[in-house]
Amino acid sequence: MAILGLFVVAFSLIAARVPATGDDWTWGSSIGMDRLKNGLVYYNGRYLGNLIVLLMTRLGWFTPILQGLGFALMIALILDITRNRTIIGYVTIISLVFLMPAPLWRESAVWVPGYANFATGSIVILVFIRCALRAIAAGQAERPHWIELGLIFTLAVASQLVSEHVTVYLLLASFLALAIGRITQGNFNPRLLCWSAGFGVGALLMFVSPEYRIIFSGSGTSYKRVGSQGGSLIAQSVDALRNQVATNGLLSNRALIFTIAALVVIIAITRFARSDRSARSALIFLLPAAIAALVALVVALRMTLTPVESGSTRTVVAMATLLILVLLATYLLERPSDRMIVAIAVASMLILYAPLLVVRPISPRTFLPTYALLLVIVSVFVSSLNGLVHARTLNTWLVLTISAGLIGWVHLFVIYSEVNGASRERNTSLREQIDKGASVVTMKRLPHGEWMKRPEPFGEKWMGAFKLYYDLPEGVSISITD
To answer: How confident is the model at residue 192 (pLDDT cuts 50, 70, 90)?
Structure first.
């Protein structure tokens, strides 16, 4: 708990330095309240996510603490699922949170609207996986109280109202878990049944929103589209796979890929060194995983040093190769439960990727749930180090991961401290110009724009929201300069 407490403080210190940008201006102003008065019906079906962002944009200093607590909960769930609540487990996962690629970090970690929908969605997925695994393992040994079942149903309904592809995943995953429970236990598990029923009701509530009829029909003014848009659906899906899904969904996570590859190599070398080399069966058993580990390391280095070009078929090949190698590397894991968790994580990623092939547009924040599942895979391999490698190796790993995490945190802290200072200066400058009676004022661009989601209010829509959020006169003309 102390480690997670330190993480919350460290995360909050960064999040507190991120100025309001983009949809923060709309949800945090009268525009957000107008949407609420209309019941959020004609916006989208993310009712819970929208309520969360509406609240968080009004909580001031408490918002960054909530963001830190949310990611701390995510980390705790990952380590609990993988039975890896150890120092080395905490440090590795926390470090990889601070080493997220910039597009994912800026849109899902510190940007409130992205956090509200996709961090919440990631937490819900992890909660369901944890509960489903326990329900299947427990079997029919105990009969849950009706109050517990009611709480499960209520949580399931609410959790379907944060993100569309998470909704689809939870519905399919709950049906699969229910079927597995039926096969293994000879009867429907009441907890899994409540999860499935709640997810079904929640999905219905989300997709009956009038906005989705417009989206599916391809008419209206919604920026979202589903299906073919003036071309072949297959061609557009392949394009999405080559670009956003393969890159932002997996290949851009360089630090995480390198971590997985390094772990597999360490485990493979240790297992080989400790095996009876005269036993041909052991050699045959470990050889595929050893080869996979070496290839994975080469691929990881390739991603780190010279990233594969976005939009190339090579991105799809690299993505498929990495996922297959992760599955092959599970042969190195001693516990069958660990192999099962890795398989569940990979299968869950594929289910989450699938809806994104037919939706336009998709953005980096959409892939926070799959990043969380990749962290599950990392945690499984980290847990296998305990009792396998020497204490010296564990200590070396601990020092390296702590160092990498600290570098990542300091990097983020410096970036957002500079952004925060520049934001305060330009807001002060705007006020001074307006107080002097100027009808045309100027403000400078914020630095490190690649680490923020829509930092500048370009366009009539965003300029209007910017003025409302900061309570600036509507008639003032604002010019943005370098």
So the answer is: very high
Per residue in 407-418, pLDDT (tens digit) is 999 999 999 999
Residue 223 burial (10 A CB sphere; 0-12, 13-18, 19+): exposed
The answer to whether residues 455 and 20 touch, using CB atoms and an 8 Å cutoff, is no
* Nearest one of 10, 67, 138 to 410, comparing CA atoms: 10
Query: Alpha-carbon torsion 119, 120, 123, 124, what sign?
Result: negative
Q: What global pTM score does this model have?
A: 0.92
Q: Which of 153, 195, 189 is nearest to 171 (CA)?
A: 195
Strands 440-444 and 359-360: unpaired
Residues 303 and 440 in one domain: no
List the structure tokens of 458.
């370009």
441 contacts: CB under 8 Å, gap ≥ 6: 430, 433, 434, 476, 477, 478, 479
Query: Both 353 and 450 in a single domain?
Result: no
Q: Tell me: do 426 and 280 sit in the same domain.
A: no
Q: What is the DSSP string of 119-166?
A: IHHHHHHHHHHHHHHHHHHHTTSSPPPHHHHHHHHHHHHHHTSS-HHH
pLDDT (tens digit, 9 = 90+) per residue, 453-482? 999 999 889 999 999 999 999 888 999 888
- Amino acid letter, 407: I
Answer with the residue of higher pLDDT: 119 or 43: 119
Is 296 in the same domain as 419?
no
